[in-house]
């Protein structure tokens, strides 16, 4: 193995996050075909305003290259801990429009919908952003038609802030979105309580903790 390959492998391991069912790791070049196939599904792409549709292998290659050299955030792909199947991805990066904050985005391949993976990926990415990356505030823009993503955001403690329009590459035009925000102090409270608020103000469901996380170095 070449020295640069070994260095890249060690860096990938340092940035890996393990949850109960998933390994969140840095994307690799060999992930491109699977990522392209999953995001090219219009039911996935239309909920992701920052990706084009159709979504090609070249788009996945470009995202992976950008993700591996990002200096203002972090990106992970989510793979099953049992068989390595890639089932989603997430990232947080410095917001271009919101001060002192990062934008959060995540998605799950359609065949894995309804199994709670979106919440698991989001929780782990939020913990990484506030923990290893030292982010102060996370923003999440959810299309108004995307009820499941809205429920995930609320489960994770995000609070509704406002509505607006954003440019969507997949829709080739502007689409209405709801903006949600999660402050570090709220995240810290949720982690210390070990619980999240539900819709009626009660506190239910233990906040899942990643089993292992190494910060960016």
Spatial extent as radius of gyration: 17 Å
Fourth CATH level, the homologous superfamily: Gcn5-related N-acetyltransferase (GNAT)
Helix content: 25-40%
Q: What's the average pLDDT?
A: 86
Total discrete domains: 1
The main β sheet shows up as:
9 strands, mixed
Secondary-structure class: alpha+beta
Report the span from N to C terminus: 22 Å
Shape: globular
CATH architecture, by name, is 3-Layer(aba) Sandwich
Main sheet strand line-up:
7-8-6-5-4-3-2-1-11
Find the count of extended strands (DSSP E, 2+ residues): 11
Strand residue percentage: 25-35%
- What is CATH's topology name? Aminopeptidase
Query: What is the number of helical segments per DSSP (H or I, 4+ residues)?
Result: 7
Sketch the topology as an H/E string, one letter per element: HEEHHHEEEHEHEEHEEE
Which segments are poorly predicted (pLDDT under 50) over 5 or more consecutive residues? Answer: 3-8, 199-206, 212-217
Describe the protein's topology.
Elements: H1 3-14, E1 17-18, E2 22-25, H2 32-39, H3 42-45, H4 57-68, E3 73-80, E4 86-94, E5 102-108, H5 117-130, E6 137-143, H6 147-155, E7 159-168, E8 173-183, H7 184-193, E9 195-197, E10 203-206, E11 212-213
Helix pairs in contact: 2-4
EC number: 2.3.-.-
Protein name: GNAT family N-acetyltransferase
Region (Disordered): 193-217
